[in-house]
Queue: 2 jobs
Job 1
Amino acid sequence: MTDPWVALEPGADPVQRMRVLRRAHQSFTEAGTVTRPVRSVVADSWRRSARAGVAPDGTASVELTDGDLGSYRAEHPLARVMPLFRELMGTFAADGEHLLAVCDAQGRLLWVEGHPVTRRQADRMNFVPGARWSETAVGTNAPGTSVAVDRPVQVFAAEHFSRRVQPWTCAAAPVHDPRTGRVLGAVDITGGDGLAHPHSLGFVQAVARAAESHLALLAPPETRTDGLELTALGRDEAQLLARGRKIRLSRRHSEILVLLARHPEGLTGDELLCALYEDESVTPVTLRAELARLRRLLGPGLLESRPYRLTVPVESDVAVVERRLGTGSVTAAMAAYAGPLLPSSGAPAVVRLRRRLADGLRTALVARRDPDLLADWARAPWGEDDLDVWRALASVRPTAAVRSRLDALERELSAAWPRGWAPGGATSSQRPRS
């Protein structure tokens, strides 16, 4: 096959390919081996699905309903391009007895529209708004896999990990925030075998690019044009949007802006020194030089001194997560959490803020006991050793894969403590450090 992202090469017999894929799927679920002609993108997704503990006979769970779903959709950035999706894909979906679906970056379906008969059929496998269709929830599928690998993906018949989904074929492409480059979600077309064609993959990819172009033309909602936007979660070097410019900040400048965004009233030089440097030998001259470079980078009028402060409002992804946690919107907070705050930073104040934000979110996740949200955290790089979260996940989703990982973490924790010491309820954050 010339293009590994396309499910069927031109001229291939879909019925024959379906039979071969069913045998390959059975071989994988029984023995863990992948046989030809399974595409590499599908084989990798099957392996990720198995590691996540997805059951081949399972189904999607509905996380958001009624008012919660409506509120979440209303504030999601992709709501602003739904008219465009309907214009470009609505007639195609209705006439072809297909479905137009849009999911968020966690694989949660926000909109499912199209032919009414096809919608009723899809309802039976919970392919409905508010349902979680991430790889960690239902295994290989176009919208979930697309956001997982950040690529347009086509999934044909028995390439789906869940047997309930194998009568379907789908193609999806991720949609990115044009300002930050982060995945907002994916647009998907789902239906019958006729979608197993290169044109359907190219179609959703073109629609996704059109949506990104449209988002770039729209002014940010409810954002002051003279404000700053700071993105600092999950990245060592923050990105700042200032007066239409994207600025990639150095690590030290990232730390300074994170702290000044937290303190609109400003910070004195001594306060910034203590917040940024563990080494007490660092002089005020060093800090003043960094601030002078930052002032030149930002441009005139944005950074003042005595005390050091930003002269315009700052919206940061840290503040978004905190606000959503404060209102009890755990799902929305997780959607905005792209990872630890400036993970490589050793600045004392940044370290404290990073821990406080992560601890607040993980505590809310454990209390919420939502298996998909817990799985998202546990499978992320920052959560793979989080014993509390794995314990909570095992209590609500006790699959063999989850239990195996929890057992390994428990053994690792026991080995890390001195002989004769009973760690009891010690968490990953309480482990001895070498």
Job 2
Amino acid sequence: MNVSDPAGPISADEFAARMDRLGGFEAKPRVAVGVSGGADSLGLALLVQRWAAERAGDVLALVVDHGLRAESAAEAARVGGWLQARGIAHAVLRWDGEKPPTGIQEAARAARHRLLAERCREEGILHLALAHHRDDQAETVLLRFARGSGVDGLAAMAPVRAGGAVRVIRPLLDLPHGRLVVTCRAFGQEWIEDPSNRNPRFARARLRAAEEALAAEGLDAPRLADLARRAARARNALEAGTASLLAEAVEVHPEGWLRLDPKPLLEAPEELGLRALARCIAATGGAAYPPKDEAVERLFAEIAGERFRGRTLGGCRILPRKGHLVIAREPVGVTERLSLTPGGEVWWDRRFAVRLAAGAGGAVSVATLGREGWQMVRSAGPDSGRIGLPEPVRETLPALWDGNGLAAVPHLGFSRPGFPLSAVALHAPGVVLAGPAFQVVSDRVGII
């Protein structure tokens, strides 16, 4: 049966059609599902299990215990029992450590995503399914509108987000919460209601309390989701144009810096030029968030002038060099120091994946080379001073340090006598310069 009851449980064919539109799965798919214990995520876990079993694949349910309520551990164990009874492999991931006094939901969300992604990587699973649905999408639009978001923000959540080692998929974005509830009931599955969903401390809970009043003014979930679809369509086109512009104007260097020809950006439609510049800064600066639009606009105007002498923005130094711009990490902002043991890997400064070979000796620290370290490299060999790297790039390279000082700099092929050059540092920015276009979701035609 290919047509499902629009108010009934989600059928196997209906769900399979959504997964087919997402694409990119192995012949025998392995999928992780984030499970909170609510009807949405449990319903998704059951749908994915059925879908994967039909393809000789398997599913791993991941339950995050944030430790924010006294009963959270017991609830996680209860959800684990339900999953085990269904034959779904599962793991409980705990958010340990001190919790922030403010912004707790944002911090919990970030911790959840990190824990889920780390476990997927450990398990070699490429796809992480999340149960966000049309009502979540509508709430996201309202929250971002209230914060003054532009087109990108109003596009809300994407059905596919590819980044890092795991691909996040949201196959249910065009379906209402009620469909997940009746799906759980059809499976005979209980669920847990999270009391924070009704806590007026949180913006989403306040929006849910105002749902009827908003709907009376025309701001119901279908209309808001339609707004997200239109904004996503515009964002998709803008990102495609930005990617083409970046391909023409930018050279990416493995030491984590960019050479930018500003002429194509200044000649392009202003929105595309601004987006390209912002993406260059976001991909180079190592910051968790892109620079503010107003700051990028000011920088863009300065670059268009005749007397641009350089600026810092978003953790970057932007410097003119022979008709081009060098965009490099700002040295003063590179403060992270991470321990690295033989056979291990760390993600340093949100820019580099640094690996140390097994059997390479003892542990080292990964930290910035800095001005002092650069002088050590220069003094080690007469040719090192001629390495053609811009000044800020030299100082912000990842270097290995131990109890005896500077041990190695992988990008420069440098190692201290007696210390084997057994490490690699691969450019792996948290924000890609130009990734896949933002996908569009519609309750009429599905995912485009």
